[in-house]
Specification:
Number of domains: 2
Strand content: under 5%
Structural class: mainly alpha
Number of strands: 0
Radius of gyration: 21 Å
Helix content: over 70%
Distance between the termini: 32 Å
Number of helices: 6
Shape: extended
C-alpha cells in the first residue's frame, strides 16, 4: 500500500531507511549494554588499566554475563498480558534520558574543581546542552498539560 502512495522509489528508500534504523537500534543495544555492564564491573572492582581493557573486550566473562542478563531480562516481558502499559512506561523512562544526560554533562563539565580548563565545555557546547535541556523540559510541561487536560 505504501508503494502505491509514494511510488517504487519512495518505497525502496523508506524500506532501506527503516531497515537501517532497526538494525542500528538492535546493534546499538546489544553491543552497548553488555559493554556498559563490563565497564561498571571493572570500575567497581577497581581493576588496573590493563585488566580493564581485557574485561571490557567482547570475549570477557563480564561482557558475556551482561549479554546473558540482557537476553534473560527480556523474556518475562513476552508473557505480559497488557504490554501497552509496559511500552508507555518504557517510553516515559526513555524520554528522561536526554535531559538527564544534558543536565549531568552541564554539571560535571563546568565544575572548576573537577575539570582542568582545557577539558571544560566550550560556550557553544554548553549552549547546545542548555537548549536540549530547555526543549526537553518545555515538551514535558506541554505533554503533562495535554495529559491533565490543561492544554488541547
Amino acid at each position: 500500500m505504501l508503494g502505491t502512495k509514494i511510488g517504487p522509489a519512495g518505497l525502496y528508500t523508506y524500506s532501506i531507511g527503516f531497515w537501517a534504523a532497526v538494525v542500528a537500534s538492535l546493534l546499538g543495544t546489544w553491543q552497548t549494554v553488555p559493554l556498559l555492564i563490563a565497564e561498571c564491573y571493572s570500575l567497581i572492582r577497581r581493576l588496573p588499566a590493563d585488566h580493564r581493557n581485557i574485561t571490557v573486550s567482547c570475549g570477557s566473562a563480564a561482557y558475556k554475563t551482561g549479554l546473558a542478563a540482557l537476553t534473560i531480562a527480556a523474556v518475562p516481558f513476552a508473557f505480559i498480558a497488557r504490554p501497552l502499559a509496559l511500552i508507555v512506561g518504557y517510553t516515559i523512562v526513555a524520554s528522561l534520558i536526554v535531559p538527564f544526560i544534558a543536565a549531568v554533562l552541564l554539571y560535571l563539565n563546568t565544575r572548576v574543581q573537577w575539570t582542568e580548563p582545557s577539558r571544560r565545555n566550550s560556550w557553544f557546547i554548553n549552549g547546545v546542552l542548555i537548549v536540549a535541556l530547555a526543549f526537553s523540559v518545555a515538551l514535558s510541561i506541554r505533554e503533562f498539560g495535554v495529559v491533565l487536560g490543561v492544554w488541547p
